Amino acid sequence: MKKRLTLIPALALACLLALPVSAHDGWSQTHSPIIAAGEVSYVELLLGNHSNHHASYRIEGRWSTDTTKVYVISPNGSKADITATLFYTGEEQEVAEPGKNNYFVASFSSSQPGAYIVSAEGDSIFKQGETASRTLRSAKSFVAVSDIPMLQRVAGLKGFSQPVSTDRAELIPQFNPAAVTPGQEVSVQLLLKGQPLKDTEISVIRRSTSDAAVYKTDEQGRITFTTGPADYYLLRAKPKTDEKAAGQYDTTNYEATMTFTVQNGKFTLPAAADEQTPFVYLNGKQIEVPGLSITDGKTMVPAEFVKTNLNPAFTGSGQVELQKAAAEAGAATEWLAPVGSFPAAIAISKK
Fold it and tell me: What is the 3-state secondary structure (H, E, C) of the chain?
């Protein structure tokens, strides 16, 4: 089910502006959805979003550094804390209302191609009179790191759909948010502590116009919609529970947001006509794999390669399927499509 939102009257807006900071939403967005391996990705932490029934990009206030952590989740599932990289874009000492319309920026860099999830997380308690509420915030954004930073190269990445914050509500894209183009039908799942959350509203908001639509999750916690024109898009959900802790808080609010960028995706380079052996990257380093072959769509490698590079206890022999052997060793694999004269590539990420 979907419904449209429109701008609210000035009187109602004034009432919303009188609400405490706890009524605001926080979200993160990456400066670019695709970056070259080894370059720096910048992630903006924004707070506001409280006009148009909390379905706009209005910036009002800033994240609290006392209650915020920013993480980047690598293709192999490892979660690194990048909070120390935060810097503030405003000039606190030179303006009348510091922090009102500016924001913090975090950053990270990786040489390993693959899907990266940025998760900004907050945990705050807000008091109003004799009652208090706890807010657990999840604000996700996404970056594809590639040897060739093109949508065509990263379109096949699958790693963006892994849950990363199972102690709170979070939005899980069931598509590649770094390589989406206009007119695609996509799905997003809402989880609460790792479980699908049904019958819950999710707003989808376009940045440049603040046009918004509201969808309600199905039995699997999913919504499905068609992507709009090239732009930034914000999704938000705010489920509430009666979870409490005596003497600390009386209710718990969960805030889940995610952003992605729709790209035009019109420029492509034709892949080479002849089949070439794929590049192989192991934790960002290109390596030679003698004996690698593609058979019936599966990447086959000598068992000795797996034993030497991925799993010393591996007992297989002959040619083995790389993706299966890597998964058994706790490593992740991603496929990068061929571009121009460059062959496809297999990115292996192990902890």
Answer: CEEEECCCCHHHHHHHHCCCHHHCEEEEEECCCEEECCCEEEEEEEEECCCCCCCCCCECCCCCCCCEEEEEECCCCCEEECHHHCEECCCCCCCCCCCCCCCEEEEEECCCCEEEEEEEEEEEEEEECCEEEEEEEEEEEEEEEECCCCHHHHCCCCHHHCCCCCCCEEEEECCCCCCECCCCEEEEEEEECCEECCCCEEEEEECCCCCEEEEECCCCCEEEEECCCCEEEEEEECCEECCCECCCECEEEEEEEEEEEECCCCCCCCCCCCCCCCEEEECCEECCCCCCEEECCEEEEEHHHHHHHCCCCCCCCCEEEHHHHHHHCCCEEEEECCECCECCEEEEECC
Whole-model pTM? 0.87
Q: How confident is the model at residue 22 (pLDDT cuts 50, 70, 90)?
A: very low
**How large is the average pLDDT for residues 60-83?**
92
The domains found in the chain, sorted by start residue, are 2-262 (2.60.40.1930), 279-349 (no CATH)
